[in-house]
Amino acid sequence: MKIEQQNMSFETAKAETIVIGVQKHQAQMKNWAKFAPFFSAAVEAWLKNGEISTDVKKITVFPVTTANTHIKRVVFVGLGAGKDLTEEILRETFGLVGKQLKSLKVNEYAIWLESFVTPAIEEEDVAFLAAEGIEMGYYTIAHYKTTSNVADSYLDRVELVTEAEIEQIAMNFEVGHIYAQAVNEARTLVNLPPNLLKATDLADYAVNLAKQYDFDVEILDKAQLEELGMGGILSVNQGSAEEPRMITLKYKATEEWTDVVGLVGKGVTYDTGGYSLKPKDGMVGMKGDMGGAAAVLGAMKIIGETRPNRNVVAVIGSTDNMISGLAFKPDDVITTYSGKTVEVLNTDAEGRLVLADAVTYAKQHGANYLIDVATLTGGVITALGFDKTGALTNDEAFFESFMEATIETGEFVWRLPLTEKDKKRIRKSDMADLNNSPGRDGHMIFGGGFVGEFAEDTPWIHLDIAGTSDAQAAHDLGPKGGTGAMVRTLAAFMEHF
Ligand code: BES
Ligand code: ZN
Ligand code: ZN
User: To test ligand 1's pocket by mutation, which of 287, 377, 464, 469 has the most ligand atoms within 8 angstroms of CB?
Assistant: First the structure.
């Protein structure tokens, strides 16, 4: 995206659309006097009578009739009494602006940054939030309708109308744009139909990322997984006609491979439940069971762009969970890569088996900290709904610093407890070291807790995104479908941890 500066002159703007924030006491704003006469002498009256709404999140599109300018329309964005505006509300508001620009089929726009400044939000932050929110809001799902004649539009140029030092402002805008693009790519991975996104495709995607950003990459195929004894991922894959993949990416920030954060993603490209088969209504949507993998890949894309000072190893276990004469079944006892044995009580609790091997592999690749991300349980939806990611941890300090990143990105994460009693139930089996389904009561905790058995003493955070990865309906920052949950938070965390 081309980012240009426009120095507070509305006459010379090249874009046809300009985005302007309007607050309750708009007339007091510095430089408002430059805009009002340019636009229309009636603007004060329109603001007063509500023709142009200053209500939060209200958008009013107005044509420009002034001669001698390229600007043809103003997208007025209501901000209320500016002082109550939080960064998250502003991000969401920009999401709605993105949707508006999309519906106007706008490819380039100007934005008057100062008009969004409030006592709490500086112009530099506005630049970041605008880029992030607008690009996320602009996203639409790629579809396969043969009857559609709507050409996909995209944003390719922006003019930042500002009097401030442009370097910092433009850089923030650029970073916000990078964040949003990575979110949108993760969304696309989640939205892809399962016949078009298999473990091998996810691996190809990772290889491309590695090429683009100079990551080390390793893709293990089925034969290699067998050689290594990765019985977790292999048992889930056993009923499939498709090959599994264990995908590893390394971003090396320092000469020495120390203080490594491991990002581990569940990449189940389709979850039928296996022999513990899902009911037909519960199966629809299970193409999104690789949301954890998408989150990790999205975060790696941002890391590749922003190059934080932190070593990162990403490990994604990918397979589908199918039935056939070869498939694993309840009562099977399997041996994971760690050597720990597992009594399979439910083949639909497959994610934790895949993650078990991926976590062990990440540790073997030097991870000193672990964050696993997975659409792991329906239990997290029962507990927290569709707008909160559930978390577990074995390390207070590590978790606390992670939470700081969530506050910055506005992604809601809530921690659940993992007690010794819970662990006992995960370890309860007559046949093996662990069982993969201790019960339905509080089962988000058992799902994540199972993964924790493989993290062992390594500081670890589990993120269950079963509720947040795939939106049931359109929201301010995007459409129904893949959300790119945790992409931004994981990346922001790497920058600050
Ligand atoms: N992929 C599902 C979890 C899921 C549910 C993701 C809804 C997205 C939306 C997972 O593999 C699963 O089936 N979990 C079971 C675990 C149970 C068998 C212990 C569940 O949550 O019901
Ligand atoms: Zn399942
Ligand atoms: Zn699953």
Answer: 377
Indicate if 172 and 206 belong to the same structural domain: no
Residue nearest atom 3 of ligand 1, based on CA coordinates: 377
249 and 284 share one domain: yes
Which strands form 260-271's sheet, in the order they lie side by side?
216-220, 245-251, 312-321, 260-271, 367-374, 460-464, 389-393, 413-415
Same domain, yes or no: 31 and 143: yes
Q: Is 307 a catalytic residue?
A: no
Q: What is the pLDDT of residue 150?
A: 64
Distance (Å, whole) CA 5 – CA 165: 10
Q: How far is the CA of 347 from the centre of ligand 3 (A)?
A: 9
Element (H, E) at 392: strand 389-393
Rounded to the nearest angstrom, the distance between the alpha carbon of 376 and the centre of ligand 3 is: 6
Catalytic residue among 352, 363, 423, 488: 352
The pTM of this model reads 0.98
**pLDDT at site 231:** 98
Dihedral angle at the C-alpha atoms of 264, 270, 272, 276, nearest 10 degrees?
Answer: -20
Q: Could you please report the per-residue DSSP string of 271-330?
A: E--TTSPPPHHHHTTGGGTTHHHHHHHHHHHHHHHH--SS-EEEEEEEEEE--STT---T
Q: How much is the pLDDT for 145? A: 85
Pick the residue whose CA is nearest to atom 9 on ligand 1.
466
Q: What is the structure's pLDDT at 151?
A: 66
Q: Split the chain (497 residues) into runs of 10 and give each run's mean pLDDT.
A: 86 92 84 86 91 96 89 96 94 98 96 94 97 97 79 89 92 98 98 98 98 98 98 98 99 97 99 98 98 99 98 99 98 98 98 99 98 98 98 98 98 98 98 97 97 98 98 98 98 95
Of 154, 184, 214, which residue is a domain's last? 184
* Residue nearest (by alpha carbon) to ligand 1 atom 13: 348
**Range of 143's domain?**
2-184
**Whether residue 427 lies in the annotated active site:** no
* Together in a domain, 130 and 278: no
Counted domains in the chain: 2
CA of 351 to the centre of ligand 3 (A): 5
Assess whether 109 and 217 both reside in one domain.
Answer: no
- Ligand 1 pocket, mutate which of 278, 348, 463 (most atoms under 8 A from CB): 348
Torsion of CA 303, 309, 313, 319, to 10 degrees: -10
Label residue 70 left, alpha or beta by phi (over 0 means left) and psi (-120 to 50 means alpha): alpha
Residue 265, strand partner residues? 316, 373
Pocket lining for ligand 1, CB < 6 angstroms = 271, 273, 289, 346, 348-351, 375-379, 437, 443, 466
